[in-house]
Write a structure and sequence with these properties.
six-stranded mixed sheet; 183 residues; single chain; 22% helix; alpha/beta; 3 helices; Collagenase (Catalytic Domain); binds zinc ion
Length: 183
């Protein structure tokens, strides 16, 4: 008798920097957060900046989160793509400049794949500044790690673009809760 593996998934799209986001579902967590196989679209002007954003998350968590770069989407668990604009079909507002999709196993709560899209331009065709894009990168990585939006304005997970380049204590506390870290 054949056994069929029934994989039940939650797929959550989080369109970001929508002012009134309604996404409240749990986003899951990585089973091995120190071995997240990560692919970044190469040879793009933002490729190196994206690596800096990943490195920032590793630094503030004292390497409890580590992204291991791979050069193919065939073997990756986390993918980053750069796009002209965020597809309006997935955005909750006309302000979205980043998007994350997490695929989470509903039984274990483990994220087994995540995709991040980073826009070059606003929905109004304005070229985004380096600060806006870097903030967006930190924010989207937060989603990919399982963090939801925050109502606290100095959180990197506050859903509105602003000049806010740092990951806050609240963000780290929330991550600690998700992953069960002691310190
Ligand atoms: Zn967001």
């Amino acid at each position: 008798m054949k056994k069929f593996l029934l994989l039940i998934l939650i797929i959550v799209y989080i369109s970001c920097f929508a002012v009134f986001s309604r996404v409240q579902a749990a986003l899951g967590k990585w089973e091995k957060p120190q071995y997240i196989k990560t692919y970044i679209q190469p040879n793009h002007p933002r490729t190196v900046m994206m690596k800096h954003a990943f490195a920032r998350w590793s630094k503030v968590t004292n390497d409890k989160i580590i992204f291991r770069y791979v050069d193919s989407t065939q073997t990756s668990q986390l993918d980053v793509f750069f796009v002209n604009k965020i597809d309006k079909d997935f955005s909750e507002s006309d302000k979205s400049i980043g998007l994350t999709q997490n695929k989470t196993d509903i039984k274990s709560g483990n994220i087994y794949h995540s995709t991040i899209w980073i826009a070059d331009n606003s929905q109004g065709n304005r070229v985004l500044s380096n600060d806006e894009v870097f903030t967006t990168m930190l924010h989207e990585i937060g989603h990919a790690l399982g963090l939801n939006h925050s109502n606290t304005k100095d959180s990197i997970m506050y859903p509105q673009a602003d000049v806010r380049l740092e990951i806050s204590k609240e963000d780290l506390n929330n991550l600690r809760t998700i992953y069960g870290w002691k310190n």
